[in-house]
Amino acid sequence: MVHFDFMMRFELGLEKPDPKRALTSALTIGLSYIAGRLIPLAPYMLIPKAGTALVFSVVSTLVALLIFGYVKGRLTGARLSAALRPQRDSDCADRRACGRRGLWPGQSNFVAR
């Protein structure tokens, strides 16, 4: 337990969470999750044609990820290239998930081990 406390404080720079902020933290995380899920889903709810909604969904998601990365980079003092990091990570996750199901043209089903 001593090692855990030491690692949390000095290596990771984290303090023990304040129990009084639990509800605020839970609401912040929950509402952020809902808002983050609505961005790619909103075009499907507003546009009747699925193909057109797909294009709007992809574009709106990429724009939202770029804005999120830019704001995060500004707040944390990171370089401007930090704006591309969330988009890149999302793209890698999408390619990996689709690759497992063989959804990319010319790709066979594979399972990462």
Short description:
With 113 residues, this protein is an all-alpha fold.
Topology record:
Elements: H1 2-11, H2 22-46, H3 50-76, H4 85-100
Helix pairs in contact: 2-3
Account of the 3D structure:
The protein has one domain. The chain has 113 residues and is mainly alpha-helical. Helix 2 runs antiparallel to helix 3 (50-76). The chain has helices at residues 2-11, 22-46, 50-76, 85-100. 69% of the residues lie in helices and 0% in strands. It contains 4 helices and no strands.
What is the total domain count? 1
Shape, principal axes of CA atoms: elongated
> What's the number of helices?
4
Number of strands: 0
First and last CA, distance? 33 Å
Question: How helix-rich are the residues, as a percent range?
Answer: 55-70%
Strand content: under 5%
Topology as a string of helices (H) and strands (E): HHHH
**Helix- and strand-based class?**
mainly alpha
Gyration radius, rounded: 19 Å
Question: What is the mean pLDDT?
Answer: 75
Question: What profile does the largest beta sheet have?
Answer: none
Poorly predicted regions: none
